Amino acid sequence: MKVWQKNAILLLLVVILAAAPLWLLPDAEFSGADGEAAELIEATVPGFEPWFEPVLEPASGEIESLLFALQAAVGSGVVCFILGRITARKSGQEG
Amino acid sequence: MKRSDAWIRRGAALCLALGLMTTGASAMHIAEGYLPRTWAFGWMAVCVPFVAAGFFSIRRKVGRYPKAKMLLAMCGAFAFVLSALKIPSVSGSCSRPTGVGLGAILFGPTATTVLGLIVLLFQALLLTHGGITTLGANVFSMAIVGPFVSWGVYVLLKKAGCRPALAVFCAAALGDLMTYVTTSVELGVVYGNIGSYLAIFAVTQIPLAIAEGLLTVVVYNVLEKYSKAELQELSVL
Question: In order of start, what are the domains of chain B with their CATH numbers?
Answer without folding.
Answer: 2-233 (1.10.1760.20)
